[in-house]
Amino acid sequence: MKGLESKKVFITGAASGIGFATAQRFYEEGSTIILIDLPSLEETKLSEAFPERMTYIQCNVTNKDDLLKVKEEMEQGFDILINNAGITKDATIGKMSDEQWDQVIAVNLTAVWKLSQMAAIQLKERGKGGCILNAASVVAHYGNFGQSNYVATKAGVIGMTKTLAKELGKSGIRVNAVAPGFIATPMVMAMPEKVINMMEGKSPLKRMGRPEEIAAAYAFLASDDAQFISGTCLNVDGALVIG
């Protein structure tokens, strides 16, 4: 993608799944990557996959002290933040605990806002524009049984993305979201075969997406080819949601 070879990119939730695929894509494009996740570096395969141009920050994105480590690294200069980290704690409304609600809100929404705020301040001070990308989900558009907490966060992320795009545009900072559909991450592929078949059957393309296809969307939106795209939510879902 045009312009990514000289960029410095922060990616949360980078140790596995879509985050890892996104790190791979930007690394292949020549970017310098700063990867953020919960496990220790020794528990991940990141050093093997990225022998150079990689910095790892072990961080719980809901922890104030951990976020200070990210802030210190941002102060060294960067170009792109990808808020990819997310969790699920599913239950129907009658069975969902306060803890399940609070944990999902903390990771999927509050942490996205805090990291975006940190990034916006640093990018504005740097004065050379920049890009913030947020992980939404197609369930934000149509809801999902047993996921009132998760859906609320992803709908909130889309609204936040549009608002920040308006607030930061005058500083040359673009803000967009990517809304994946059913994606064949290792966690999803460990589900029962009948669940996987159900997911594939709901897609007009009759398959799930690949993590690499979400990474490609992030790469496009961060690239110079998307310089006039801001405030949008790009569905990458094989036409699962239309309209």
Strand order of the largest sheet: 3-2-1-4-5-6-7
Which shape, going by the Cα principal axes?
globular
How widely separated are the two ends? 28 Å
* Domain tally: 1
Report helical residue fraction: 40-55%
What is the CATH topology classification name?
A: Rossmann fold
Annotation field: number of helices: 9
What CATH architecture would you give? 3-Layer(aba) Sandwich
Structural Rg: 17 Å
- The first-level CATH class is given as Alpha Beta
Order of helices and strands: EHEHEHEHEHHEHHHE
Could you tell me the number of beta strands? 7
User: What low-confidence regions span 5 or more consecutive residues with pLDDT below 50?
Assistant: none
Strand content: 15-25%
Give structural notes.
It contains 9 helices and 7 strands. It has 243 residues and is of the alpha/beta class. The protein has a single domain, classed as NAD(P)-binding Rossmann-like Domain (Rossmann fold). A 7-stranded parallel beta sheet has the order 3-2-1-4-5-6-7, with helices on both faces. The two termini are 28 Å apart.
What's the SSE blueprint?
Blueprint: E1 8-12, H1 17-28, E2 32-37, H2 46-49, E3 54-58, H3 64-74, E4 80-83, H4 98-126, E5 130-135, H5 139-142, H6 148-168, E6 173-180, H7 186-189, H8 193-202, H9 211-222, E7 233-236
Parallel strand pairs: 1-2, 1-4, 2-3, 4-5, 5-6, 6-7
